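Subject: Jacalin-type lectin domain-containing protein

B.,
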Amino acid sequence: MSTPTQSPTFGNAGTPSFNDLTSAGPNITRISKIIVNYGEVLDGLTITYETASGPKTETHGGRTGNEVTVTLSADENIVGVCGNYGFQSSVYGTTSINQLQFIIVNKSTGIARIAGPFAPTRTSTAFRVIGEVVAFAGSLNSNGRFIQALSCYTK
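Prediction pasted inline below.
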């Protein structure tokens, strides 16, 4: 496998931060499931990675608000991530990921589907990452309750 490339970080990079390419290990083969928690902003992500040594699950942010599970079949890959980020003074008083969606393609059939958008549309800055997503990185607000910044590793 080629070395994954990290996208720019979208949002307000800060601490605590996470990097699933490091914590889940270098032998990630694919993403099999993502649980998205959201309300006014992206509260949290729980990502299950398939690795050479078995499944590894990484949880980031809060488990509050709406919860949606996105399950990928063995033939599916996330080939794009898009969303919005911006300052939310009326909600949390800081920059956060305001909306997120995943573009998923079945590599056997070529059929694409979109999961999301998760969280409401807001006036904010749009972002997108194109390429087969193999891992996520980012940062949380100071109490770890929501995601302030997000980056993707693609191959």
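Residues 5-154 form a domain with the Vitelline Membrane Outer Layer Protein I, subunit A fold (CATH 2.100.10.30).

T.
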